[in-house]
Amino acid sequence: MLINDYNRLSEADAADFAATLVAIPAFTTALVESRPFASKAAMRERAADAAAAWSQTEVQLALSGHPRIGERASAAEPGAGHSAREQGAVAAAGDELRQRIAEGNRRYEARFDRIFLVRAAGRSPDRILAQLEERLGNDDATELAVVASELRDITLLRLDESVTE
After folding, report:
1. Which of 46, 52, 99, 132 is the most exposed place for a label (fewest CB within 10 A)?
2. For 36-73, how does the pLDDT look when each residue is reduced to its tens digit (9 = 90+)?
3. pLDDT tens, 100-138?
């Protein structure tokens, strides 16, 4: 979408678009209310500022809109199309590797009581599995900070891929 087209969307349509980037209402509101943006760079800067302010509760809320690594998002989820593209390499991985990732997901959820979130775009399934294994050693506070960072990366990458000058 062109930045000028985003600027011209109705408030509801602009909110729907922003919700595909991340399921955090305050983020959506920030992008809608900050219009019009002079450029994609200005929109990205506003998005980065809004993402930097996310609370732990907002990060937890956003996790509800993400599928597990190796699983498909519900078509009803606003970011489902993004998730499918981002996890394409995992979906195409061999059965053994996908099973190891699924088992890692189960261990992660048992340990942290939330899904494992990682920016999958641009990462091989082997690298994702290695990160999952490594992050299982984190304490909860460290891991929550990593999750928030990964969520910000995912959100800004989605914006970068979705908006053009």
Report:
1. 52
2. 999 999 999 999 999 999 999 999 999 987 888 877 65
3. 999 999 999 999 999 999 998 889 999 999 999 999 999
- Rounded Cα distance between 132 and 42, Å, is 34
Sign of CA dihedral 2, 76, 91, 133: positive
Residue reference for tokens 């937890």: 60
Amino acid at 9: L
Residue 107 structure tokens: 């261990």
Neighbours of 61 (CB within 10 A): 16
* HSE-up (13 A, CA, CB side) for residue 118: 25
For residue 57, report the phi and psi dihedrals to the nearest 5 degrees.
Answer: -65, -40
